[in-house]
Design brief:
By secondary structure, the protein is an alpha/beta fold. The chain contains eleven helices and 16 strands.
């Protein structure tokens, strides 16, 4: 049996639970493809799963390979696979309920895979799927953002926020972004119309009549966001479900988005990237064996763009 390197957890907890070890290489079943991982994106969901926050929802079997962002090369295909063949360069946000991409090889369902952007290397392509899908499904799906509307994006310099700024501008919206002091130039480059330094300016005193609030922070930030919305507006969160009661009190709507794999949207994101309309910032590149450090940095919450693990 062929072996490979992977980063797994055998129990829930901190970085001490992560093990870089030899494990059997998976094989594709019907409708699946085997991908040689060239690069794997790092996201907050990785350490949240590691610590057990989603154990009831996802019901993983341990040990579990972490990581759910990938760019790589198709090595083999299972029975019935028609859209891909060995040698194809792909990217994906696989099902969170299965073993992840912090490994040399991963098996992914065909319907969760798309051809990666031709103009990007694997490192930058691996930074797109989870964050790009999240921003797309939140803004275009849940919020139904339209041209001429105003959207307030919290945590705009992070992985999801960076894509949200760009997708909102592509839709023709006015973008107000909250971020810390080092990030205004970066966000201007992505297309933000106004940047609020949340450490020095209370955003809820500087913003009013927004059509959409995109919450990537939760907690007090979410609570303070209700009053910046105009009547009929919507607060969309990817962190915690917004209060239905508070939405009713303010005459607005609420939505919680937990993203799903979507190859069609990935294909659209790849087109945008190849057309030069979607930029990717890799803030830190580490080897697979340093996944421990990658998750520690992610958990600190000050990443500009994405952290990526170089695998192949």
């Amino acid at each position: 049996m062929k072996m490979m390197k992977a980063v797994r957890i055998h129990s829930y907890g901190g970085s001490e639970c992560m093990v870089y070890e030899d494990v059997p290489c998976p094989m594709p079943a019907a409708g699946e493809i085997l991908v040689r991982v060239m690069a794997a994106g790092v996201n907050p969901v990785d350490w949240k799963i590691r610590e057990g926050y989603l154990r009831e929802m996802l019901q993983h079997e341990l040990p579990l390979t972490l990581g759910w962002d990938v760019s790589g090369v198709v090595q083999a295909v299972g029975q019935g696979v028609t859209q891909f063949r060995p040698g194809d360069e792909i990217f994906s946000r696989p099902d969170l309920g299965r073993n992840g991409t912090f490994a040399e090889f991963v098996v992914i369902r065909e319907r969760e895979v798309a051809l990666k952007p031709k103009s990007m290397d694997h490192v930058h392509a691996a930074a797109i799927p989870l964050a790009g899908l999240t921003a797309w499904q939140a803004l275009y799906g849940a919020a139904k953002l339209a041209a001429g509307q105003t959207v307030l994006i919290h945590g705009a310099a992070g992985g999801v926020g960076s894509f949200a700024v760009q997708l909102a501008k592509l839709k023709g919206a006015r973008v107000i972004a909250t971020a810390s002091r080092p990030n205004p130039a970066y966000l201007k480059k992505l297309g933000a119309d106004e940047i609020i330094d949340y450490l020095s300016v209370p955003f809820d005193e500087a913003v009013s009549d927004a059509d959409v609030v995109f919450d990537t922070i939760g907690g007090n930030t979410q609570e303070r966001s209700w009053k910046v919305l105009k009547k009929g507006g919507i607060l969309v969160s990817i962190v915690e479900p917004p209060s239905v009661e508070m939405a009713g009190l303010h005459g607005v709507r609420e939505a919680f988005v937990f993203i799903r794999p979507d190859a069609e949207i990935l294909t659209e994101l790849a087109k945008l990237a190849d057309d030069g309309k979607l930029k990717v910032n890799v803030d830190m590149l580490l080897p697979l064996s340093d996944a421990f450090r990658a998750l520690e940095v992610s958990q600190e919450g000050h990443v500009r763009g994405k952290i990526v693990l170089k695998v192949g």
